[in-house]
Write a structure and sequence with these properties.
The chain is α/β, with parallel strands linked by helices. It has six helices and 15 strands. It is about 35% helix and about 30% strand. Helix 1 packs antiparallel against helix 2 and helix 2 packs across helix 3. Bound molecules: 1-O-pyrophosphono-5-O-phosphono-alpha-D-ribofuranose and uracil (URA).
Length: about 210
């Protein structure tokens, strides 16, 4: 599929398997997700633009590089918070916005409750973080919000995606690339991803 990249890194796939395992308790789920998100961050930043700079080593001056555009991370609450630590690890200067959305259990439509993002999104590379892409309603709504706030370069990073969700986001925002660690089979009748990993927010935060 156009604009969809699957992260096949072996260590990501190993961690995803631990995250899928229903026996993995919250404390381990959190630490594995954090490690996986560091690996994901490395993979999805391969094409970040650089500009050259001069750096003085203890012996001589040479050419070095800095990122040429600011980076903004935007986790979708709650589960997206589980990806922030790993991204900040490799992007320590990133500013972080938050979008609060939850899915109504009956309609599966996203309900928004919080929105706070840094100014000047126009120049930034914006990484939208949410481990789960199910119907795609939450991610599509979050992209719409960010575009209204001026975001021009958006990248979505998910851990597990359903084909239904990919189709929806591609339809509403065809130019926005999506990275995921697995394209799963489908949604069940309650809108959960199969095989998926269950409710990511509940598994991260120990809520039921
Ligand atoms: C989960 C997940 C996504 C959304 C995906 O959030 O983190 O944001 O569902 O589903 P969709 O693609 O069908 O919109 P949830 O609504 O469970 O909220 P939570 O993270 O606060 O638990
Ligand atoms: N949200 C989750 O946390 N898991 C799913 O499978 C679908 C939506």
């Amino acid at each position: 599929m156009k604009n969809l990249t699957i992260l096949h890194h072996p260590l990501v796939q190993r961690d995803l398997t631990l995250l899928r395992d229903k026996r993995t308790p919250s404390n381990q789920f959190r630490s594995v997700l954090r490690r996986a998100s560091t690996l994901m961050a490395i993979e999805v930043t391969r094409d970040l633009p650089l500009k050259s700079t001069i750096v003085a080593t203890p012996l001589a001056k040479t050419t070095g590089y800095v990122l040429s555009r600011p980076v903004v991370l935007v986790p979708i609450l709650r589960a997206g918070l589980g990806l922030v630590g790993g991204f900040v690890e490799v992007l320590p200067d990133a500013r972080v916005g938050h979008i609060g959305l939850y899915r109504d259990e009956q309609s599966l439509k996203p309900v928004d409750y919080y929105f706070k993002v840094p100014k000047n999104l126009r120049e930034a590379m914006v990484f939208l973080l949410d481990p789960m892409l199910a119907t795609g309603g939450s991610l599509a709504a979050a992209i719409t919000y960010l575009k209204k706030r001026g975001a021009k370069t958006l990248v979505c990073v998910t851990l597990v995606a359903a084909p239904e969700g990919i189709r929806r986001v591609h339809k509403e925002h065809p130019e926005v690339p999506i990275f995921t660690c697995s394209l799963d089979k489908r949604l069940n009748s309650k809108g959960y991803i199969l095989p998926g990993l269950g409710d990511a927010g509940d598994r991260i935060f120990g809520t039921e």
